[in-house]
């Protein structure tokens, strides 16, 4: 894998270190977060069967219609993923921050998912 700069390489190393420990099962799947400069995405994944159970992102039509900040978008995505997870019968997950530092939009999404009923 070609890593273009030091920042990406640092995140890649942290991500590998996290994924050695975190693994999602059907009983306790992995909630992973991807953050780009504009958008934020969340998926709940069963790593044993290699299946995405549910997903949410800031590109949802309901979120695109309103003009909100990126922090508020992350909060809405966190609530949305928690709502979809409980509809799929999932109440506990393992949180995978995907190499990002746990502050800002990542922390906001995690807190909103917890408020929505997910336990991690």
Task: Note the topology.
Elements: H1 6-21, E1 30-35, E2 40-46, E3 51-57, H2 61-64, H3 70-87, E4 94-96, H4 105-115
Parallel strand pairs: 1-4
Antiparallel strand pairs: 1-2, 2-3
Helix pairs in contact: 3-4
Structure commentary:
This protein is of the alpha+beta class and 120 residues long. The protein is 41% helix and 19% strand. The protein has a four-stranded mixed beta sheet with strand order 3-2-1-4. Helix 3 runs parallel beside helix 4.
Which radius of gyration do the C-alpha atoms yield?
Answer: 14 Å
Distance between the amino and carboxyl termini: 31 Å
Please write the string of helix (H) and strand (E) elements: HEEEHHEH
Count of domains: 1
- Indicate the CATH architecture: 2-Layer Sandwich
- List low-confidence stretches: none
The helix content is 40-55%
CATH topology, what is it called?
Answer: Nucleotidyltransferase, domain 5
Number of helices: 4
What's the story with the biggest beta sheet?
Answer: 4 strands, mixed
User: Which structural category fits the helices and strands?
Assistant: alpha+beta
Shape: globular
User: In oligomeric terms, what are we looking at?
Assistant: single chain
Mean pLDDT: 93
Q: What order do the strands of the largest sheet run in, or round the barrel if closed? A: 3-2-1-4
Number of strands: 4
Beta percentage is: 15-25%
The level 1 CATH classification is: Alpha Beta
Quick summary:
The chain is an alpha+beta fold. It is 41% helix and 19% strand.
Write out key terms for the chains shown.
Nucleotidyltransferase, domain 5, 4 helices, 120 residues, single chain, alpha+beta
């Amino acid at each position: 894998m070609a890593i273009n700069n030091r920042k990406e390489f640092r995140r890649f190393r942290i991500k590998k270190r996290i994924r050695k420990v975190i693994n999602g099962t059907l009983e306790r799947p992995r909630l992973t977060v991807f953050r780009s400069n504009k958008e934020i995405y969340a998926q709940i994944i069963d790593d044993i069967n290699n299946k995405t159970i549910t997903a949410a992102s800031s590109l949802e039509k309901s979120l695109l219609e309103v003009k909100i900040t990126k922090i508020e978008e992350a909060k809405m995505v966190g609530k949305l993923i928690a709502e979809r997870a409980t509809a799929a019968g999932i109440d506990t997950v393992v949180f995978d921050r995907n190499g990002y530092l746990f502050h800002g939009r990542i922390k906001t999404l995690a807190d909103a998912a917890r408020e929505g009923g997910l336990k991690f």
